[in-house]
Amino acid sequence: MRLIAISAFLLMFAPVTALAMPVVGEAAPDFTLIDSNGAERSLSDFAGQRVILEWTNHDCPYVRKHYSSGNMQSLQREVTESGAVWLSIISSAPGRQGYVSGEEANELTASRGAVPTAVLFDPDGIVGREYDARATPGMYLLDEAGVLRYMGAIDDQPTTRRSSIEIANNYVRQAIADLDDGREVQISETTQYGCSVKYR
């Protein structure tokens, strides 16, 4: 009994193994999440397609800048009309800023004229932490082979001012253009800016 108690005590203070972080140029970690309609969606379901992952929080002023201006919706249309996939991921925990139900997420999508392929819920933050998603909006680009080609901010204007969009260098659009032209992505990793992801 004493040995069990000592073992339990040691486990309580054992170092936690850090999750492997995503690496540009390597396969993106697979995951399965529930979408806003209650269906399971796995990243592997989209094998052979280019995929954009967008970490989002509708209450974040940085996210609001891109949606109230129509900037995010415009990029979503470009991506999905080209045959690629756009997955919006909400890692806000229940009770924290940005958490919504499936019905609320669908209402937001409709009211903003957004066109993601799916809105996915990550309330435990497992996938967000696996991808080292630190801020909203946080953006990731995967090529048709499932290799991570870009991760970071949406652009180079870390401000909530809508006027900044006009002068912004959109890293996601630039990375897509590089892939379309058969080039290596010139800017493949940047620092995410915005609101911190509201993990549990």
What do you see in this structure?
This protein is an alpha+beta fold. The protein has a single domain, classed as Glutaredoxin (3-Layer(aba) Sandwich), CATH 3.40.30.10. Helix content is 28%, strand content 18%. It has 6 helices and 9 strands; from the N terminus they run H-E-E-E-H-H-E-H-E-H-E-E-E-H-E. It has helices at residues 2-12, 61-68, 71-81, 102-112, 126-130, 171-180; strands at residues 32-35, 40-42, 51-55, 85-90, 118-121, 135-136, 138-142, 148-152, 195-196. The strands form 2 sheets. It has a 7-stranded mixed sheet. A two-stranded antiparallel ribbon has the order 6-9. The protein is globular and about 45 Å long. The two termini are 34 Å apart. 34% of the residues are buried.
Task: Give a quick precis of the structure.
The protein is built from six helices and nine strands; from the N terminus they run αβββααβαβαβββαβ.
Q: What average pLDDT do the residues reach?
A: 92
CATH class: Alpha Beta
Which strand order spans the largest sheet, edge to edge or round the barrel?
A: 2-1-5-4-3-7-8
Radius of gyration: 18 Å
Order of helices and strands: HEEEHHEHEHEEEHE
Estimate the helix proportion, in percent.
Answer: 25-40%
The coarse overall form would be globular
Unreliable segments (pLDDT under 50, ≥5 consecutive)? 1-18
CATH architecture: 3-Layer(aba) Sandwich
User: Approximately what portion of the residues adopt beta-strand conformation?
Assistant: 15-25%
**Head-to-tail CA distance between termini:** 34 Å
How many separate domains?
1
What is the CATH superfamily?
A: Glutaredoxin
CATH topology: Glutaredoxin
In this structure, how is the largest beta sheet organized? 7 strands, mixed
Topology, number of strands: 9
